[in-house]
């Protein structure tokens, strides 16, 4: 009787579990296929203006993720519209730097990306199929209950199993030894960008007649995590006390923003600029080369791009200064 009851329970539980998996999978498939983003065209156009073209032209405001500038520029370069230039790296000196056709096309990229992520998180609902296991157990329990009539009280007595206790004790390593081993096998300390460890630095520059001038702005530092002894840990074993140092870490500066500003200043001087203490006007036009932020860790801006014959030669020199031969690349 018990074997029949068990088989019947497995069958019913299996039906419960399989049916729940099929129904839930069909439901998730439907909501994934019909998923959409509700924002209108203007939303995606504004996003393309700010997060793609605006970021490529103006850079970021003292951000840590300077690679995002290059990603924004590459996104605009990926758009291909016949008869229309959409590459921000080719339009950064133009008066009309935001063609509507390009904004719509780049907006579609943002829209498709948002839809992909929405569907990605909806697909996580497939994981709820794990709940089918509960339906399987519930089905087995219901089936067991329907067949348990006469022998419901004929339950086998539980067997008591006496386990042998072990008197052996596994020796533990001393906490101080464990700490020293952990430190010994730590990976080498790696440098990384950081902010706010030192104040931002600016260096002004101008050409010979002060008609073209600008600023080198640095805010990033090269940091690493330095370790130091910040206390002592003691343990007692067999009546003996053993103590060891506790090691802590904190960010330390390897190169401050001034280092990168001074390095970039040498490149600027190679474009026939001189370093000055003041300039006669506003500087608000960034040299839109993302490699300057990405490799020199500074932002370079000037007061104007164009002259009577197009882009000024010294402005173009600033754009290309990352590749000036004879200077060490950072």
Automatic annotation (TrEMBL):
It comes from the Eukaryota. The chain crosses the membrane at residues 7-27, 125-150, 171-192. Keywords: Membrane, Transmembrane, Transmembrane helix. This is Uncharacterized protein. It comes from Zopfia rhizophila CBS 207.26.
